[in-house]
Design goal:
This protein is an alpha+beta fold. The protein folds into three domains: 66 residues, Uridine Diphospho-n-acetylenolpyruvylglucosamine Reductase, domain 2 (2-Layer Sandwich), CATH 3.30.43; 113 residues, Uridine Diphospho-n-acetylenolpyruvylglucosamine Reductase, domain 3, CATH 3.30.465; 104 residues, Uridine Diphospho-n-acetylenolpyruvylglucosamine Reductase, domain 1 (Alpha-Beta Complex). The protein has seven helices and 20 strands. It has a five-stranded antiparallel β-sheet with strand order 6-7-12-10-11, with no helix packed on it. The two termini are 25 Å apart. The chain binds uridine-diphosphate-2(N-acetylglucosaminyl) butyric acid (EPU). The site of uridine-diphosphate-2(N-acetylglucosaminyl) butyric acid has 17 residues, from strand 13 and helix 6.
């Protein structure tokens, strides 16, 4: 395991932002990770952790040791008539794991196809799309405590999952490194295809809502609508959809009858931030190489050489305008470093 100096991070973050790490190392096992955490470099340098690099905005150089999780492997640890339980290395690519689940003919993550990032990052922000969230299939999350170097495991109920949130974004933030995630996938297929445009697309293609057809339809919807990070740098949704109370929603509805909101718990409505941003006139906006995507206003993009600071400045201008127009605070979903 080598520690490298002065490493360019452009190819390691999906925003394609140029930034350098003073020191950089990859670990592919728990043993390597513990060795890195014990390294004497860390007595004077700060530690930074990188997963798939698809949910971060680098606004400065990394002044310390950046370690990348490359723990691989998908292992079936239990199987019965109803379920398949798989233990997956945190450094596995998320979409590759979804593809694997389709090959095994098990359900639970098919609607989460093509979400960029790593398996270890999935529970951190409880990734979700098209009516499915990863929390519904996560059985356990295994991690190493950075201070004590102890191995620990949390069961689903201890992860405090919520919309784009978990214990890993709160109490355990910067304190642990996820090494493995255990998933419980279902032999009985969820057939979750009523959300948004999935049913419409299946009908157009004259296809039945089978596991494989739903998976392929999601890929086709995402490919059409969302920019490919390999072509245009981006980090998926930049903001979370804000949650407001019913009375505020009803007032807004009087002024903006086409506002989009979904019931989200008692007396709460989740507003489509993409709609708010589009309505405020930002969709397709560019400022140098930073911009708001032309098909999905929730996605900020780096057309070529935007800096992290330029994307951050744009995001702040958007937040300010949404607050002024709708009196709603929208918060970033991506981690800003
Ligand atoms: N909308 C607009 N204008 C826009 C974008 C969206 O009016 O520019 C409207 C759409 O027409 C739709 C509604 O807003 O009626 C919701 O849009 P969409 O279905 O695209 O979903 P979203 O709420 O914008 C969320 C996730 C996405 C996920 C989609 C699909 C968040 C923050 N984002 O987006 O996740 O793919 O649902 O389920 O919850 C991600 O997290 O990186 C991500 C891409």
């Amino acid at each position: 395991m080598k520690i490298l100096n002065n490493i360019q991070l452009k190819s390691l973050n999906s925003f394609n932002i140029s930034s350098y790490a003073k020191y950089f190392a990859e670990f592919s096992s728990e043993i390597d990770l513990v060795a890195l955490l014990k390294h004497n470099l860390l007595s004077k340098e700060k530690l930074f952790i990188l997963g798939g690099g698809s949910n971060i905005l680098l606004t400065k150089n990394i002044d310390g040791l950046l370690i990348k999780n490359a723990i691989k492997g998908i292992k079936i640890i239990e199987e019965n008539d109803n379920h398949l339980i798989a233990e997956v290395g945190a450094g596995e690519n998320w979409h590759d794991f979804v593809k694997w689940s389709i090959k095994q003919n098990v359900s639970g993550i098919e609607n989460l196809a093509l979400i960029p990032g790593s398996v270890g990052a999935a529970p951190i922000q409880n990734i979700g799309a098209y009516g499915m969230e990863v929390k519904d299939t996560v059985e356990k999350v295994c991690y190493i405590d950075i201070q004590s170097l102890e191995k620990r495991t949390l069961i689903n109920s201890e992860c405090k999952f919520n919309y784009r949130n978990s214990i890993f974004k709160n109490d355990l933030k910067n304190k642990i490194i996820i090494t493995k995630v255990v998933f419980k996938l279902n032999k009985k297929h969820a057939n979750n295809y009523k959300y948004g445009v999935i049913e419409e697309e299946l009908n157009i293609a004259n296809q039945k809502p089978t596991l494989e057809n739903i998976f392929n339809t999601i890929i086709s919807i995402r490919t059409k609508k969302l920019p490919d990070p390999k072509v245009i740098g981006n980090s998926g949704s930049f903001f979370k959809n804000p949650i407001i109370n019913n009375s505020k929603f009803n007032n807004l509805k009087k002024k903006y009858p086409d506002i989009i909101g979904y019931t989200s718990g008692k007396n709460q409505i989740k507003i489509a931030a993409g709609w708010l941003i589009e309505k405020a006139g930002w969709k397709g906006y560019t400022c140098g190489d930073a911009g708001v995507h032309k098909n999905q206003a929730l996605v900020l993009v780096n057309y070529e050489n935007a800096s992290g600071k330029e994307i951050l400045d744009l995001s702040k201008r958007i937040q300010k305008s949404i607050l002024e127009k709708f009196e709603i605070i929208i918060l970033p979903e991506v981690n800003i470093i």
